[in-house]
Amino acid sequence: MTVKLDTIVSLCKRRGFLFQSSEIYGGMTACYDYGPIGVELKRNVRDAWWRAMVQERDDIEGIECSILMHPEVWRASGHVENFTDPLIDCKSCKARFRADHVPNYRANYRVTATDEGGGKVEGLEVELGGEVPSDRIRPGFEADGRKLGQVEKIEFLGASVGCPTCGNKELTEPRLFNLLFRTHVGPIQDSASTVFLRPETAQGMFVNFENVRATMRRKLPFGIAQVGRSFRNEITTRAFVFRTLEFEQMEMEYFCKDGTDDEWYRHWVSERFNWYLRYGIQRENLRLRKHGDDELAHYSKRCYDVEYNFPMGWGELEGIAHRGCYDLTQHMECSGKDLKYFDQESGEHITPVVIEPAAGVDRAALTFLIDAYHEETVLDRPRVVLRLHPALAPIKVAVLPLIKKRVEIVEICRNLTADLKARWRAMYDDTAAIGKLYRRQDEIGTPFCVTVDVDSLEDHKATVRDRDTMSQDRVELDRMVEFLDDKVVLSPPKIEEAVDI
Ligand code: GAP
Hints:
Blueprint: H1 5-14, E1 18-20, E2 32-34, H2 36-55, E3 60-62, H3 71-76, H4 79-82, E4 84-89, E5 96-98, E6 107-115, E7 120-128, H5 133-136, E8 142-143, E9 146-159, E10 175-178, E11 181-184, E12 194-197, H6 202-207, H7 209-215, E13 222-231, E14 246-256, H8 261-278, E15 286-290, E16 302-310, E17 313-324, H9 326-335, E18 341-343, E19 348-350, E20 353-360, H10 361-372, E21 373-378, E22 381-386, E23 397-401, H11 407-421, E24 426-428, H12 434-443, E25 448-452, H13 454-459, E26 461-466, E27 472-476, H14 480-485
Parallel strand pairs: 3-13, 23-24, 23-25
Antiparallel strand pairs: 1-2, 4-5, 4-10, 6-7, 6-9, 8-9, 11-12, 13-14, 14-20, 15-16, 16-17, 17-20, 18-19, 21-22, 25-26, 26-27
């Protein structure tokens, strides 16, 4: 079913998944706090990723790096110079946008330059998309059948569309805006003390390549994985936790030999696409999209996005980039340290090629929520149910007493909850009538509810209700953990749908 984003936002607030950050002060734009239920979902997403990427494999090591790194890391990686977005402002309502995010945005420029032969080019009109003109209109740029030499002047003539907020036609020309957050180490705030909040976790893996290789005695190919917070001073934050200023990433850098990279690239696109299916995302809501040359990040030779059909349209869920030798080469050059790998087979020192699957924990959690959301009518009554995979469900089992005034029933419930808690996040709830308790658990995606009733006192059994089918099983209390253990599968079978890239 198609669900509106507002419906998800309201469910998240109502059921304790996510709250606006600093809400009592009016909120902090594009920052969110995970509530008691949301924090469990997020943990489960992270754990499912770690299981697939580290625990279930024998060619990947995990690490955890600090958020603050030596500032030279970000000069070497190219982020200080190139991690930019094209920013435009509306002169009327002052709203800000990323030019490349404004639908149908085209901008016109008048260019004065020389051509390749040194002849004067005047009044040349050029139309561009959302990019910054000085980035594109350079020596070698082709327009009107001529190749440009030196560019003297680029005048902005106007944009094809109005402001997406107020409709006014007066938009400024795109200018570059660097997304790095800066802060200072120590008491003096000058350029020497400037450090950056990391915009990606990836660089931690590159600068530790040799540490991990040597300490774990690794041979190519092998990967280094990390889950951690990243920060970006995003211009347009939108769509709830889809794009925020701080977020968590799950990234893995796979180091391999040149010549084996195509095969590994296909492997990782397939692995990552199928991971979402394995944890229950509906096939029709998932697709792969190849990046055009003009979209590629400054380090990337090739990139496919795993995209999801969000309520606001298809959007990136995860990117799988071919980073070539870019990062290790840059770090060798800037640090002066040798990060080459000695290949015993060829007897040569080589720079490994890197394939990088990079996902967002928050964006994945949002996706699992949206995809799991269902509204249905059962016995003429509406029901909202999150059909989350049991591995991702925040609460795996809720134990509910049918009559909370009977101390013997409550005691059985408490003991059972304690047994279940030893394995999973389980909860006891007696704060409403049974119908309402079921509805609450359905809305947070709890796959199983166990109800203890008067008969339980006699037959030592309880009723297990399945969230999706609403079927009920009468199960012996002594066998309850074993019964549920078969159903709460944390590591579902792998799916190997062939990907077409
Ligand atoms: N190291 C490569 C890299 O960082 P990216 O495509 O910029 O690549 C990877 O980011 C993933 O991180 C994205 O697919 C998305 O899931 C998540 N992500 C990136 N920026 C984000 C933001 N501002 N808010 C939430 N998630 C974000």
